[in-house]
Amino acid sequence: MSSVNLHYTFNYSQPEEYRLSHDSVFLARHVFEKMMDVDLSQAMALDICAGAGVVGMDFLFHRREALQSLPSSFDFLEIQDVYKPHFEENKIRLGAVPTELNFVLRNYNDLQSDEFKNKYNLILSAPPYFMPGHGKLSPSDFKNRCRFFIDSDLRNLLLGIHHSLKQSGQAFLLLRDLPEHRWNVIREAEEICFGLLEFKVLGDIRGTHFVGLKPC
User: Beta partners for 97?
Assistant: First the structure.
């Protein structure tokens, strides 16, 4: 896939120290295309590792422009509070939507708790791509937490999705293999999801797997 974003939405507010890649906006567009004509008017949605809210808000932007129904609520789960002012600014830049947008300052491990059980119809996630030890850490703790699975891990991400997704719901996320570190992320994710989530690689986004999940 080209690195050029052919479906520009709006100019995001984001920390200068760490800028999003086009993977995030391409994820939002891919999910929009997959979900065309699906009625989301009563849906509750979640963006995991949301940062400044770009994936979820891009998805909402595309749905609004196409005159498609929008979720009734959208939670943006993010563990780093530095993103909160950028999230609030992006709500303004996105413009009017009927969806309730909530910044949720939590670790995605919490998705395995009772309060989140079977809560969401739609889940999106562009999580970190690297495990600790996969590459050199930055002097910046903020950057490291954006790039590496530091606050939790892939297993808890997938178990959180399984616990919080409604039986009729769908989840979409990005996963990247790291052959130079001998990490086959698809094989590991399939093992974690076995018997819990239907796991399907739907395509490729700039060398990263675009994955769909549904409850078994």
Answer: none
Question: Per the structure block, which two tokens stand in for 180?
Answer: 């130079």
Phi and psi for 95 in degrees, rounded to 5?
95, -175
- Considering the entire predicted model, what is its pTM? 0.91
Of how many residues is the chain composed?
216
CA angle (20, 58, 69) in 5-degree steps: 160
Q: Which of 143, 109, 106, 113 is nearest to 128 (CA)?
A: 143
What angle is formed at CA 33 by the lines to CA 149 and CA 194, rounded to 5 degrees? 45
Rounded Cα–Cα distance for residues 92 and 114 (Å): 32
User: What domains lie within the chain, and their CATH numbers?
Assistant: 53-181+192-208 (3.40.50)
User: By the 8 A CB rule, do 64 and 27 touch?
Assistant: no
Helix axes 54-65, 84-94, angle to 10 degrees: 10
State whether residue 43 is helix, strand or coil: coil
The 8-class DSSP code of residue 108 comes to G
Q: Block means of pLDDT (10 residues each) for the chain, length 216 residues? A: 68 81 90 95 97 96 97 96 96 97 96 98 87 65 64 90 98 84 82 97 91 97
**CA–CA separation, 15 and 65 (whole Å):** 27
